[in-house]
Design brief:
It is built from 11 helices and no strands. The chain has 250 residues and is mostly helical. It has one domain. Helix 4 crosses helix 9, helix 5 runs parallel beside helix 9 and helix 7 packs antiparallel against helix 8. It is globular, with a radius of gyration of 17 Å. 50% of the residues are buried.
Length: 250
């Protein structure tokens, strides 16, 4: 428990509750954990800590189901994952020198942008152009470092196309697993990663595994149309929460 000495009981309680809820969404939608978890954690700890703790949780969770992800993901997921490693360090470097109030504002705007992205018209299942794939990977990497949210560019890349939902979900989770590893590596290189953040991520892992398992059970019981509606609801909820925070007092 000495590793957690820097966190208050309230901070740990907030992390546990938000981790359980966000992981359920992740289990059902295939994304959304960082979009929902980072803004909440950033209210209890510093933005950098919120990003790193979320990365630790996401990496541990992704490794627990890595074999299945390899089998179900689209090949493009590996390309995007590789590009993320190139752009994550610059994103975290910008975050490390950004004042906390401004960082919280920008992270909320990132969550808001996810809703705008999901409103884009549905596209055929054909693989997007190399330029689109490259831009998706680099922008996702930067947002991984700055906001702990690789999702806003990645979600419309997969959900916005007419591909099987199992493929879309596995592709996104595979990318997010690599993004989490890139985020932690960047944090270590910048001297921002500390053992207490890994310890908090480990403490949250049982709750996150439970939430993810419950979400995965629900995923198996819904059809494609219902799943895509749920995805829209998730990003809409994140956008509304971000907007309320932006317009709220203080």
């Amino acid at each position: 428990m000495e590793l957690l000495a820097g966190f208050t009981l309230l901070q740990i309680a907030v992390a546990l509750a938000s981790g359980l809820a966000a992981s359920f969404v992740r289990g059902l939608a295939g994304f959304g954990m960082a979009i929902l978890l980072v803004p909440v954690l950033a209210l209890a700890v510093t933005p950098v800590e919120a990003v790193l703790v979320t990365n630790a949780i996401s990496l541990l969770l992704g490794l627990s189901e890595f074999r299945r992800l390899q089998q179900d993901a689209e090949p493009s997921a590996w390309i995007i994952a590789g590009l993320i490693f190139l752009a994550t360090l610059p994103g975290m470097a910008v975050l490390s020198v950004t004042p906390a109030p401004l960082a919280r504002l920008l992270i909320a705007l990132v969550a808001l942008s996810a809703f705008a992205a999901i409103l884009l018209p549905s596209r055929p299942a054909d693989l997007p152009s190399k330029a689109t794939t490259t831009l998706t990977g680099l922008s996702s990497g930067f947002l991984t470092g700055f906001a702990g949210m690789p999702g806003p560019p990645v979600v419309p890349y997969y959900v916005g196309r007419a591909i099987p939902r199992a493929t879309a979900k596995a592709s996104m989770i595979l990318i997010f697993t690599f993004a989490s590893a890139a985020g932690l590596a960047s944090g270590a290189l910048l001297g921002e990663l500390h053992w207490r953040q890994i310890a908090l991520g480990g403490l949250l892992l049982p709750a996150v595994l439970l939430g993810n398992w419950l979400g995965s059970l629900a995923f198996g019981r819904v059809g494609d149309a219902a799943w895509r509606v749920f995805v829209g609801v998730v990003v809409a909820a994140a956008a509304i929460a971000a907007l309320v925070k932006l317009l709220g007092p203080g």
